[in-house]
Design goal:
Layout (H helix, E strand, L loop, with lengths): L37 E2 L7 E2 L5 H11 L3 E5 L5 E6 H5 L1 H9 L10 H4 L1 E2 L5 E3 H4 L4 H10 L4 E8 L4 E9 H8 L8 H14 L1
Parallel strand pairs: 2-3, 6-7
Antiparallel strand pairs: 1-8, 3-4, 4-5, 7-8
Helix pairs in contact: 7-8
Length: 197
């Protein structure tokens, strides 16, 4: 049987620290890649349906403080990805020009998402043996801001999205301040900052 734990009265001078105030060990380019992966076993993935309006999807990104949404069907299957670049870049402008008379409010996630068959993924076994620098090199070589990591789920008998790499998050963990959207500029900023440190 369990025994109650001893308790004491709070002493004067105790302060509250926000979650981001705890200083984890610094991340380096030769740190294990897994240290900069958002593990979806520990963090709830930000998802959206293909039929949702782009405006609401953008609001969801802002509210969740993310720049990537997994587009999922009602039964949980991945249909695509929607990034902030997709919603705020050239893509919606070109689409609206093609659909003369259409308004931004008419666009849905399915119009702008990257469909599943065009999504490149990393395998968790590869990631577990990689360093942060290899992830940055992979993102840069593929002109990507994000990369999904796939794992095999024995219970379900199929592949599942296990994690997400984000260039912005990696830069933050490396202590590099970078602009948000331009992928080429993002990697130039990371490389420059790492070279000067």
């Amino acid at each position: 049987m369990h025994k109650p734990l001893p308790m004491s009265k709070m002493k004067p001078g105790v302060v509250w620290l926000p979650a981001d105030a705890h200083a984890p060990k610094p991340t380096l380019v030769n740190s294990p890649a897994i240290e900069v992966m958002t593990d979806l076993r520990q963090v709830l993935a930000a998802t959206v349906s293909a039929g949702e309006s782009v405006a609401r999807a953008t609001q969801q990104m802002i509210a969740r403080r993310v720049r990537l949404l997994l587009v999922v069907s009602d039964d949980g299957l991945i249909e695509g990805l929607l990034s902030a670049r997709d919603t705020m870049g050239e893509k919606p402008v070109k689409l609206l020009q093609e659909r003369r008379g259409a308004k931004f409010s008419d666009l849905v996630v399915g119009d702008l998402m990257v469909p599943r068959q065009y999504i490149d993924v990393l395998d968790i076994d590869t990631v577990l043996h990689a360093e942060v620098g290899s992830i940055l090199a992979t993102l840069k070589a593929n002109g990507r801001q994000h990369a999904l990591v796939i794992d095999y789920d024995k219970l379900r008998g199929g592949e599942v999205v296990r994690g997400i790499f984000s260039a912005t998050q990696i830069a933050r963990q490396l202590g590099v301040a970078i602009p948000i959207f331009e992928v080429a500029q993002t990697f130039a900023e990371i490389t420059s900052a790492l070279g000067s440190s």
